Amino acid sequence: MSVLVYRDSDTLSQALATLLAGCMIEKPNSVIGLDCSAQLASAYRKIAGMTSDGLLDWACVRAFNLFEHVRQDGEPTDEARMHSMLYDRVNILPENIYSPSAQTRDWSVLCNDYENAILDVGGLDTVVCTVGADGRIACNMPNSELAPVTHVERGESGRVVTVGISTIMAAKRVIAILSGYELSTIAPLVISGPVLPSIPASYLQLHQNAIFMLDEDAAEHV
Questions:
Q1: Among 36, 46, 102, 202, which one has the highest count of C-beta atoms within 10 angstroms of its own C-beta?
Q2: What residues form DSSP beta bridges with 67?
Q3: pLDDT in tens, 75-112
Q4: DSSP 157-210
Q5: How far apart are the C-alpha atoms of 171 and 107, rounded to whole Å?
Q6: Could you give the residue ranges of the DSSP H alpha helices within 95-163?
Q7: What's phi and psi for 153, nearest 5 deg?
């Protein structure tokens, strides 16, 4: 586990883009789990810029979205937001983009199929995820018990299909982003507090290759 602190959110975004680019250069056929949070839009734009400059090639990369909210017809999906923020700006093949469906008659089958799709490609090489002010990662909410694999959560914005804690922990590398002063209270609990299901991101302390990236606002009490 390593903890990296940057001056501000823009510097953090640049560092994240550089780190993720390094992962892709090291392994051109990387399998990457990506957070759909708009908080990462700046980093995704920087990665897209590296791609347009010829520094990165997404032709063999496979990308798995970490979650998808169940929305009403006509509402933009998390997958659509990822296309706008990243996928439409790089040369990733459409068949190499994976996202949970927001519509199904059997949620258990959908979740099982998504988990199997990750396993079928050998698991995730790198996961990029934001940490919420309540300690969530992906959309694994604080609870008395955490679901290990892809499942349906019920949050303040309704139902969401999300990869589970075990799925994230099985990745070879996990990059967790904490940005903004609102994260300053939870940050020390995530990074050095007890590992608790009420703080899902705290489980990353147990990962042999977890990288916590914070800006100075989030790191104030670390």
A1: 36
A2: 162
A3: 889 999 999 999 999 999 999 999 998 888 899 999 99
A4: TEEEEE--HHHHHTSSEEEEEE-SGGGTTTHHHHHHS---TTSGGGGGGG-TTE
A5: 24
A6: 107-120
A7: -105, 155
